[in-house]
Design goal:
Domain Acyclic terpene utilisation N-terminal: 4-433
Order of helices and strands: EHEHHEHEHEHEHHEEHEEEEEEHEEHHEE
InterPro entries: AtuA_N (IPR010839)
Radius of gyration: 24 Å
Organism: Telmatocola sphagniphila
Protein name: DUF1446 domain-containing protein
Number of strands: 18
Distance between the termini: 36 Å
Helix content: 25-40%
Length: 437
């Protein structure tokens, strides 16, 4: 029975830059997936693209690809699927090609785009029922002028089309995380889009490996039993054409794969385990059976699926004021709490109030032990937030006795990008697949 090995070497932008190299070197992979995008990441990339039309993608990928070139020469059949394209898949693809050209490597690079609907918002919002906030029901018009990015979560079909067309490297914008794995499975096994159980199986596989080392002992409840974590291996899903698969990791690596690590990851970021919604299928995680085959190898079977909904999820980021937070160390939890209250009171005396403020104290083991004070504010008025950052240092000489922990300077003022979850009818979105020439 045909099988494919898909290893995920990245769970987010900022994950280990060594993991993809180690995984390709020792994992005997058919596919390497690299998952870089979170909701916040897309807003950051949107701003980068506004400042520089050649930016707006996960630049770590270019470094990783450069380091992978010796292995790509040794493993010419290895394919890479990544959402590193972020807000600018074309710019990412051009830099990837430059890296390969420099190394004398020829690979066919395909792009998947069409997820970015920012330029179409005016047209879409002619129907006021579109893009309402999933949590509040509010119309997007209430914050339309503040929107910086709007991206749909595309599914696996355009990835599969790229691979079926001969892609060696597929660079996408926003796609559902699990679809990075589902796409290769569709392309390799020829599954139809109404083969819901097997699509669900690949979705479960993608969900289990999408966060990298979270499936191999990272942040596991009994993480001490996964030592050595300094050599933790990243996950591999070996999927057969029936949809049954095993999760493993490269030999002689740290970490652990067992029923607990897989179960914890299976339930990660899941609202309803009986109906995990993706663009490809509605997956039922409650039907899944786990079996420990051997040390660090767990078999997953019996996934069940239902037709996908007629909607794509949309991630919208909008400007939502400014925030800042500062910290001090003060002897005694009560003294620390009072210092925070004094700080905010002085700001009120100076004429500044805030949309939101928060005083938190992390106490020491005794009442008189040093306590950790953190005060934070959020407000649309940047000047008010900047003024807030100037009130920490005066506490050193005009607050409780023994204030310390102030040597790092004033806290930074950061612009806040808030998240607007929404849905959009699939017929309003046109995924695009193209080869980089």
């Amino acid at each position: 029975m045909k099988r494919i090995r898909i290893g995920n070497g990245c769970g987010f932008w900022g994950d280990s830059v060594d993991a993809p190299i180690n995984l390709v070197r020792d994992g005997h992979l058919d596919y390497l997936t690299l998952e870089y995008l979170a909701e916040l990441t897309m807003s950051i990339l949107a701003l980068q693209k506004q400042r520089d039309p050649n930016a707006g993608f996960a630049s770590d990928f270019i470094e990783v690809l450069s380091r992978l070139t010796p292995l790509l020469i040794q493993q010419p059949r290895l394919k890479i699927v990544t959402n590193a394209g972020g807000m600018n898949p074309m710019a990412c693809a051009l830099q990837a090609k430059a890296v390969l050209d420099k190394a004398g490597i020829r690979r066919r690079i395909f792009l998947v785009s069409g997820d970015d609907i920012f330029s179409k918002l005016e047209e879409i919002l002619k129907d006021p029922s579109e893009l309402k906030n999933l949590d509040t029901g509010h119309s997007l018009e209430t914050i339309r002028s503040k929107v910086v990015s709007a991206n749909t979560y595309l599914g696996a079909q355009p990835i599969a089309r790229a691979l079926e067309s001969g892609a060696d490297i597929v660079i996408t914008g926003r796609v559902a995380d699990a679809s990075l794995t589902v796409g290769p499975a569709i392309a390799e096994f020829g599954w139809a889009m109404n083969d819901f159980d097997r699509l669900s199986a690949a979705t479960v596989a993608g969900h289990l490996i999408e966060c990298g080392a979270q499936a191999t002992g990272g942040i596991w409840t009994h993480w001490q039993e996964a030592e050595p974590l300094d050599t933790i291996g990243y996950p591999i899903a070996e999927i057969d054409e029936s949809g049954v698969f095993q999760i493993s990791k490269p030999p002689h690596t740290g970490g652990a794969i067992n029923l607990e690590t897989i179960s914890e990851q299976l339930l990660y970021e899941v609202g309803d385990p009986a109906a995990y919604l993706t663009p490809d299928v509605v997956s039922d995680f409650t039907s899944v059976l786990l079996k420990q085959l051997s040390r660090d190898v767990v078999q997953v079977s019996d996934a069940r699926g239902k037709p996908a909904t007629p909607f794509y999820k949309v991630s919208i980021a909008f400007r939502d004021g400014f925030s800042s937070g500062g910290t001090l160390v003060i002897p005694g939890a009560r003294a620390a709490k009072r210092a925070g209250e004094i700080l905010l009171a002085r700001l009120r005396h100076a004429g500044f109030s805030y949309q939101r403020s928060y005083v938190e104290v992390l106490p020491g083991p005794t009442e008189n032990s040093e306590a950790y004070l953190r005060v934070s504010v959020h407000d649309p008025n940047k000047a008010a937030v900047e003024r807030f950052t100037r009130e920490f240092a005066p506490l050193v000489t005009s607050g409780p006795q023994g204030v310390s922990g102030y040597t790092t300077g004033r806290a930074a003022v950061r612009e806040v990008f808030a998240y607007w979850p929404a849905l959009i009818r699939k017929e309003l979105v046109e995924p695009k697949v193209e080869e980089l020439q």
